[in-house]
Design goal:
Helix content of chain B: 25-40%
Strand content of chain B: 25-35%
Number of strands of chain B: 14
Distance between the termini of chain A: 25 Å
CATH class of the largest domain in chain B: Alpha Beta
Order of helices and strands of chain A: HHHHHHHHHH
Helix content of chain A: over 70%
Distance between the termini of chain B: 36 Å
Oligomer: heterodimer
CATH superfamily of the largest domain in chain B: P-loop containing nucleotide triphosphate hydrolases
Structural class of chain B: alpha/beta
Strand order of the largest sheet of chain B: 6-7-8-3-9-10
Number of helices of chain A: 10
Shape of chain B: elongated
Largest sheet of chain B: 6 strands, mixed
Order of helices and strands of chain B: EEEHEEHEHHHEHEHEEHEEEHEH
Radius of gyration of chain B: 25 Å
Radius of gyration of chain A: 19 Å
Shape of chain A: globular
Number of helices of chain B: 10
Number of strands of chain A: 0
CATH topology of the largest domain in chain B: Rossmann fold
Largest interface: A-B, 27 and 36 residues
Chain lengths: 253, 309
């Protein structure tokens, strides 16, 4: 294992994050505050509690997930797309590193960034609502796993993308709808029965449900199924990345 | 000297079907500077890319220090440094961080003193903390070299290192290359500037159409292929070459005021003394005498044209 290489990639990628620390910090705080003002206070005050949880608090896990997923994808996809775009990928391809080391370096850095943003949002949430996290360890584990698995997905998108438009295509067209329809702002039991069934095909439902369980002890689907789903998703991403480096798809001519 | 890089019958066909290498073979000796000369699209960059692991090879064998480049990729790649043709650098990062990244990526532990030394050698030390985007083109190119040297490679590939670099800097670069050779680094460079190969290479490999046409010691190549000429300007033009001078195979200039004599500089007798004596005997008076030696450029053009014919 080339640990020096992992450390080098990780440090270099984190440096990119620290260069733009202010933006990285301000934008999630601002957008979360807006969500709380609009959904939590303005609309939420007219809504009844969901599963015995105050609506303002109910949306906290969904909000964190929404940001963490989109941030993971955009950080990780940009992290690997940018070297491809400016040509510095040559160095990575000629270095004595294997795919696992490259992935740990890039995905690890991207996941660290989105974890930071997730925690910032959680901190901001405390300013607006009373939160009592019932399973803090499970909450952190879910958060970490989500950062990791969506950063892996982002890494794949970054390798696949041939231009900046494609880089934004998947997050815009696929991920944002899935997250919005995945129960970020509602419990899926609020939906008509038909749509409840449809929703079960949305992988994000399992993540948000599991994450919400860690906060409030109530969930749409069983916690074991949530964990299994996210584990499976992570493995699928890893498998695909292994294949990418084995065949050189879109990276090695 | 032993062979450090061995390329055997390497073929490379790109996905589009273009055959960039059509069976290239080349042995590179440890510690030498070898120049890879060839016209655009000859396969120079592809050859380097396959050795460095950026392109996969379609068939053939490449070993570095006796190790297969695919099977022992970790050991092989740790020995190799690559300076690409295009300037590719992270614009927002500082010079020193870019170089540190390269050292780490190639598995080397931190060594700030060594990196400072490289930056000094390449006259980049005062730009250590500057952002890459603020540097001039020549400086960026030197940052690429610094990055390639950061992990103390044994073999260094320079793909057109002086393209777009001014004359002064080019000479500096040549000095740097000579210094590296002094430290035992084997250097493979591709270049369009034949004077560059002439100035610094020990051996010349000519590549065209995806294969190596010739590999030869620079001095031997120039001696073998090099022709020398004497051009004699006459005080008064002549209509034709006097019969007495026929054995020399002289060439008469169209205006009749110049004679050209070609000879082999390696021959025991060049015939110069005889020619000058006979010219005098024939009553021709000389205004000027010049000698000319063919450059590597002429040799190269001849070789590639022959290949194309």
């Amino acid at each position: 294992m080339n640990f020096q290489a992992i450390a080098a990639i990780y440090t270099f990628e984190m440096a990119r994050f620290f260069r733009t620390l202010k933006q990285s910090f301000i934008s999630p705080v601002l957008s979360t505050s807006l969500y709380f003002v609009v959904f939590g206070t303005a609309i939420g005050s007219r809504m009844e509690a969901v599963d015995g949880v105050d609506y303002g608090a109910f949306i906290v896990p969904g909000l964190i997930m929404l940001s963490v997923m989109t941030q993971s994808i955009s950080n990780a996809s940009f992290g690997i797309y940018f070297p491809k775009f400016i040509g510095t990928i040559y160095e990575l391809l000629s270095a004595p590193v294997n795919f696992l080391e490259i992935v740990i370096g890039y995905v690890g850095a991207a996941a660290t960034k989105s974890l930071f943003i997730g925690l910032v949002i959680l901190g901001t949430a405390y300013l607006f609502v009373d939160l009592d996290i019932q399973h803090p360890i499970a909450m952190m584990s879910f958060l970490l796993l989500t950062c990791l698995s969506f950063s892996l997905l982002g890494f794949i998108i970054g390798i696949w993308a041939g231009n900046f438009e494609q880089l934004n295509l998947v997050p815009m067209l696929v991920v944002t709808p899935l997250v919005f329809l995945g129960g970020s702002f509602y419990s899926i039991s609020m939906l008509p029965e038909f749509w409840q069934t449809v929703t079960l095909f949305n992988p994000v439902v399992y993540l948000i449900s599991g994450f919400r369980w860690a906060f409030f002890g109530t969930a749409d689907v069983a916690i074991g199924i949530s964990l299994g789903a996210i584990g499976l998703f992570t493995l699928a991403c890893m498998g695909f990345i292994w294949w990418i480096f084995k065949t050189g798809w879109r990276i090695r001519s | 000297m032993s062979v450090i890089v061995s390329v055997q019958n390497v073929r490379k066909t790109y996905d589009g079907g273009f055959e960039a290498l059509t069976g290239a073979s080349l042995d590179i000796q440890e510690g030498e500077i070898i120049a890879l000369l060839g016209p655009n699209g000859a396969g120079k960059t592809t050859l380097i890319s396959t050795i460095c692991g950026i392109s996969s090879l379609t068939s053939g064998n490449i070993t570095v220090a006796g190790m297969d480049i695919a099977r022992d990729y970790r050991k092989v790649r740790a020995m190799i440094g690559l300076v690409p043709q295009e300037i590719a650098l992270e614009p927002f990062e500082t010079v020193i961080n870019s170089v540190r990244f390269s050292r780490g990526l190639f598995g080397r532990a931190k060594n700030e003193a060594y990196l400072d030394e490289i930056l000094k050698t390449l006259s980049l030390f005062d730009k250590k903390e500057a952002k890459v985007m603020a540097l001039s083109g020549g400086m960026k190119r030197r940052v690429l070299i610094a990055k390639a040297l950061a992990h103390e490679p044994k073999v260094l590939f320079l793909d057109e290192p002086t393209a777009g670099v001014d004359v002064e800097l080019r000479k500096d670069m040549w000095n740097t290359v000579a210094k590296l050779k002094g430290q035992g680094v084997t250097i493979i460079l591709t270049t369009h500037y034949i004077e560059e190969a002439e100035a610094i290479a020990d051996r010349i490999a000519v590549i065209n159409g995806g294969e190596i046409l010739l590999v030869e010691d620079k001095a031997a190549l120039m001696a073998r292929m090099g022709k020398k000429q004497i051009r004699i300007e006459l005080l008064e033009p002549v209509q034709e070459i006097p019969a007495k001078l026929a054995p020399y195979g002289l060439e008469l200039a169209p205006d009749g005021a110049g004679l050209t004599y070609a000879y082999d500089i390696n021959a025991e007798r060049t015939g110069i003394t005889g020619l000058l004596n006979d010219l005098q005997a024939a009553g021709l008076q000389m205004r000027d005498v010049q000698t000319q030696q063919s450059s590597l450029e002429d040799i190269f053009v001849d070789l590639v044209q022959e290949d194309g014919a």
